[in-house]
Amino acid sequence: MNLLLRYIGEVTSGAWSLAAGMAVTLRYMFKPVTTVQYPRARLPLPEAFRGPVELRRLPETGDHGCVACGECARTCPSGVIKVQGLKARASDFNRARFYFIDFSRCSLCGLCVEVCPVQALMFSREYEQNGGSPQVGVADLLARIREARP
Amino acid sequence: MTPATPEPALRKTLTEETFFLNLGPQHPSTHGVLRLLLRLDGERIVTCQPVLGYSHRGHEHMAQNRTYLQFMPNPPRMDYLAGLMYNHAYCLAVERACGLEVPPRAIHIRLICAELNRISSHLLWFGAYLMDLGAFTPFLYAFDDREDILAILGEATGSRLTYSYCRFGGVARDINQAFIDGVRAFIPKMRARLKDYDTLVTKNIIFVNRTKGVGVISRERAKAHALTGPCLRASGTAFDIRKAEPYGFYPQFDFDIPVLTGGDCFDRYMIRLLEIEQSLRIVEQALNRLPAGPVKAEGVPQFITPPSGQYHFSYETARGHLGIFLVSDGSRVPYRMKWRVPSLSNLSILPVLLPGTLVADTIAILGSIDVVMPEIDR
Amino acid sequence: MMQAAWNSLNAFFGPVALTLMVGLLLALGWVQVNALFLVWLERKVAGHIQLRIGPKEVGPFGLLQTVVDGVKLLAKELITPSAVSWPLFVLSPVLVFAPVLVAFVVIPFGEEFQIRDLNVGVMLVFAFGGLGVLAILMGGWASNNKYALLGAIRSVAQNVAYEIPLLLSAMAVVLMAGSLSFQKIVEAQAGVWFVFYQPVAALLYLVGATAETNRAPFDIPEAESELVAGFHTEYSGMRFALFFLAEYSNMFIVASVATALFFGGWRGPFLPGPWWFLLKVYLLIFGVIWVRWTFPRLRFDQLMNFSWKYLIPIGVANLVVTAVVLKFTR
Lengths: 150, 378, 330
Prior knowledge:
The structure holds 3 protein chains of 3 kinds. Chain B has helices at 7-12, 59-63, 75-78, 83-98, 104-132, 137-157, 177-202, 205-211, 219-224, 230-233, 241-244, 265-288, 342-347, 350-353, 359-369, 373-377; strands at 19-23, 35-41, 44-51, 166-167, 170-171, 309-317, 320-328, 336-340. Chain B is an alpha+beta fold. Chains B and C meet through helix 5, helix 6, helix 8 and helix 15 of B and helix 8, helix 12 and helix 15 of C.
């Protein structure tokens, strides 16, 4: 008799736990969905978002402020930055003439942005890059800033 | 000469009654690239042999070839589920070696982020474990919660998975109001969700039957295999680096180390849910007493150079005891950096635990141990 | 014109064969449409349970999504791995479909809406339902894949164990109705549905039916986290789609049988019979989908224990009590 009672108790408590679980899923079924339908809607990017690096455009000159010191190239853990500068006159500041980043090997750690002594670099807010070959990732940052100039 | 893989040797041991099953490295529930060589008698496992190394990337060797700062993006890529903790641990290790002082605000921010990261790692584990057991829905509920954490951490770090947030002497950037509001809204939501998980999963008779008494690790065996983290604490040993060798401001916070004595899959599951609650407590306290001030120490040299010598630092990640052994020769580049990762020793119990269980139990046990393969393979 | 064609066909085949043929053709069409709808329903319900919205891009509310998926599967190459035993491998997806079609013959959609009312209708459904497992065994064995083999072995053991409670619960109803014909059983429920007389049998039937159709939480043969895809690991393209189709059609069959046995069949106020029948069937199927997206999977030995230790004793007790009560009340 005791055994039978325990058997019945086992069955009912088990069935009850299953019913309680089903109540939870039913409740969730009528909750609003939490997903965002990506290509049609987008989430706002966080303020700190770390996109691919690009050169900052200075408002006073409308051009970049890179002095081609090469600190970013030396710090980059993956060694994907190539920067070369040129002086117009001997007394001038150095100016970047070439600035290439291979984003296909970049890990977006942001060390280059941090070490820049003149804050010439910043994170872009792009996140939809793709490409069919490794070469697609190589970006000419000077050309990009020239294109973006109004 | 030993064969490169133990497979041929294992094949020789096959008899008429047994057959050989190669579980992984592409199996849906080996969590990454673990490969298990199983000898089966019907559905019952006779022997089990894990094969590692499918995602070896040589992180320790990379450490010997770059400066301390340059190695910063690497640690999160070892354990991608608790990246911020690895980042935190690495920074703490180097700071200890150099004797750097960190401002209190930065320490608080680091602790908040690390605990949030622990919650997100446990949530992902929770979802993936339930998926291994065949329940798909809790996985998406857990991801809904985890998404909140990722958004919060994204607000502070700018990244969602491989945060390189901590810096020597502080953190990369200060937190903003959106971060604080996000955390404040998240804590009650998560607590309400934990109740739902309780009804949906913990009390579910099918789940209890699948996990209770399965894969029991005794207290002694857990110690013998150097298990750490939730696996150890589920076997009845109250060992947590946060209490044993505290770092940060952990001693000032009021939190418990949950301990269960069953040592089975159910207890390993339960202990993680309890840890989520404790982490929420820590986050709440840290947020309430967040001091003002700088988030980065002044005058940290760009090329940080620990004095020559040997250093060891222990850290409690979501999976257990992370040890960083650092040998410095006084140069800008580490001489040697050895990472003692928790998943490797936790996985070492598998060949002892599996024989005699069923294939379905294999998945339940493997899932309950919570291994992250890239951390093992490094 | 139509009448003339019908008459000449009638004269050639005879009325019985003709209704069977037309009925089977209709059933064949219905199976496809129904499966497409059910897959959509499953994905939509699963989506909303999981705080997502499910398919929505193709067609209104994503209704055409499964059609597109079907077209994709049709267009895919049929891969036959080199190590399979190919006659069985090819035959298995076809065979898995046969019991479904046969069962459609006796399903009472309405008073007039039935291909043929056999006086052994219930037996026919269960007898042919047992064939499905043969197809799974063939597919799993012929695949020459360890996961598939394990899945097939599990499937056979499971089906053997769960057909017993299924039959026991159906027998209780048959005892009450005094007939094996579906129409007679539905007629016997004119006053009160059998689910109120036989709640235990109804529950047993639903549990057994879920297991019989390999649905979660009893989807042991295709447990994807253990056996990759179970018995159909090696199947791709349309052959996989046939297994898929059969699963959903089987769901429809067992839900229809449940409706006829326990929920008053096509009976209901206002609406014509077939509408009531379909409504009840889809409500039951919704329940099955709901269960799938709530529970974890049982372990294989627990599954067998559950049947032999709980379902079968309860089923036998229920049957005995029913028989005794009927003996003394009639």
